[in-house]
Amino acid sequence: MFIDEAEITIEGGDGGAGKVAFFAKKSGPSGGNGGRGGDLYFIADSNITDLKKFVETIIFKAGNGQMGGSNRRFGANGKDLYLRVPINTTIFDQVTNKEITLTEKTPRVLICRGGDGGRGNDFFKTSINQTPLKATPGEKGQIRKINLILRLIADFGLIGLPNAGKSSLLNELTNANVKTASYPFTTLEPNLGVFEGKIIADIPGLIDGASTGKGLGIKFLKHIEKVSLLLHCVDVESENIEKDYKTVIEEINKYNKNILLKESVVLLTKTDLVSQNIIKEKIKILKKVNNAVLPVSIYNQNSLEKLKKILR
Asked: pTM score, two decimals?
């Protein structure tokens, strides 16, 4: 199952306590300082594809610093923790509402600092108090509750109602092997395919009321926020293709109206199933809402070549 969101708690390591100790054969304190707690980093990794590991485990903590030792020995520092996430993962702090997105240009970020180690009693020695019994505990590491949100890096986004032919087109244009069938919601999660070095994302179908939680909802629309071109699939056999088109547009608008500012092409799909007269009639209707309309069929190579030309 593709996981693109997770809610976790992350912690820097706690600092080690300082030690109270004295030299064995001579007076004077010898307690060393505690080690520093480890820091917690996130790293963008192109080999990671989703956030599954952050659902299986929800608390992550860097290593604690060790307690100081006798003979003025410092405790060992805690081990830093590096959490690897997919490129284009956003880290959102639930308390501060601040966020940062890991990209190829910003592949690593420190999110939780470890606490400083405590002071041993040797640190507190003075000319007045040469046998201090005081030592301090280590500081606690930073704790944050965060959301991880993955937005797929795609150049083109396939959108449309369920069973509009999106996955079939993705399979035909790329090396993807997405399950297809003639019933709604065959696609239950985003699928990716590569066409001549560019990524096409197939987004699960929207339905009327998706923004209020019906069907699969709109949780996957974040994956098309950064595409350069929307490919809006409309089934040629639909009894009301204008309504089908507007249903998807309205649901996207409720989610993020800026997506609708992107360039788009309407793909009138499954044209092998109807006559040329019906195709012409449906194109005429769709051009009322979007002037860029292309009839396509996975069984018509000429139509696919026209689509490939647009993608190029």
From this structure: 0.75
